[in-house]
Specification:
Blueprint (H helix, E strand, L loop, with lengths): L15 H4 L15 E2 L2 H13 L2 H8 L35 E4 L5 E4 L11 H6 L6 E4 L17 E4 L2 E2 L10 E4 L1 E3 L3 E3 L5 H9 L5 H11 L15 H19 L17 E4 L8 E4 L4 E4 L2 E4 L3 H4 L2 E2 L2 E2 H10 L17 H26 L8 H6 L31
Helix pairs in contact: 6-7, 7-10
Amino acid sequence: MRGVTEDVQTDEAPLLDELMPWSVAPMRLGRSWIVAPDVRTLRERWNRLVAADAAEREALFRPSRARTPSSSVAALPGQRTGTVRLARETGPCPEPVRLAHGPFDEQWLLPDHRLIDIARPELWRVADERQLFAVEQGYVPGAADPTGPTGPALLVTAALPDGRSPAGRPGRIRPLFRRPGGEEPNLAPGLLPLLGERYGGRVAPEDVLAWALAAGRPSPAGCRVPLPADPAVWAAGVELGRRLTEIQLRGARGGERPRLPGGRRPYVRAAIPARPASLSYEPGEETLSLGEGRISPVPAEAWEFHVGGVRMLEQWFAHRTAPAEPGSLEAIGPAVWPQEWTSELLELITVLALLGRLAPRRAALAAGPLLTPGALREAGVLPVPDAARRPASVLDHQEEGPEGQFALL
């Protein structure tokens, strides 16, 4: 194939949007009380809502242009929730589901379409035990160094992501597969055969995602993913990307829970108070302080890990301690700091420390001579056909419509 090993600039490399063409915009939840770090809180909020009279229920609900207690909407795909108008709902709380609430913050969501302004049902249709979601982060001007304060351009999660951007700039959500059961990779048609030919062996969809995690770089046009001409560079990048994936999945999909090397692990050295009001870090002692509580050792890489210019540990803490309006559903929460939050924080410290230590390897990953855009066009990979940018038709089961009616498919 002619032109394959021609040197091109990284800013001429293909966009992730061309390699993984089907993408979904972030969810728009519409009301913050439907997300919480623990399941008990969500159930208490639901019970408070359905126990209220009509006027109070409307005030607690926080209506928007998209949703009011009188909205008539279908159930979310795969969810067993009511479809009567919420104004008449008296049933039990929907079973909360795990949600990637922005980068590195797994919380819980009430999966009720009557509560969510824009839920992106196409994501729910393909979310299963085989699915992985690549979450492209919004571009931040000056974001070029993965070891710097802007952080990585691309993250991966097994939990359903809402696509929140800490910098307030929307990114995109890209499922790895277009259908449930790991069927039909969300990749440009012809890409896998081309890469297999170039690199001398089978290339799996997970390999492409791993390479993108390792080599993807932010740009104003979106995440760019240079494809190397050298099979050895590809193999090294895929190996690094698979390690990044394993760490970010935190044991999901049969992987191992993240652990720091050498037997080091963070411990609670002084009990976290019932309501810690501040978070700080002492680099010399590698100590994270939550009020009077102390956790150590906390590697500097964990404290300094940023996404979109935002420090992840500070954001995680703020999501659990920010004041809420008295009398609102958001104000319903644990009276004291739960033990499960401490366990999640210890794991998050480990995850961020491991990723931070790999950031220099990501920065040093040089693709060298690249597969040129011309080579991708010559192979028929580019331009991407319009059909590849649309969701697949997924009709594996009936989906309940408003007021318990099933749609005619």
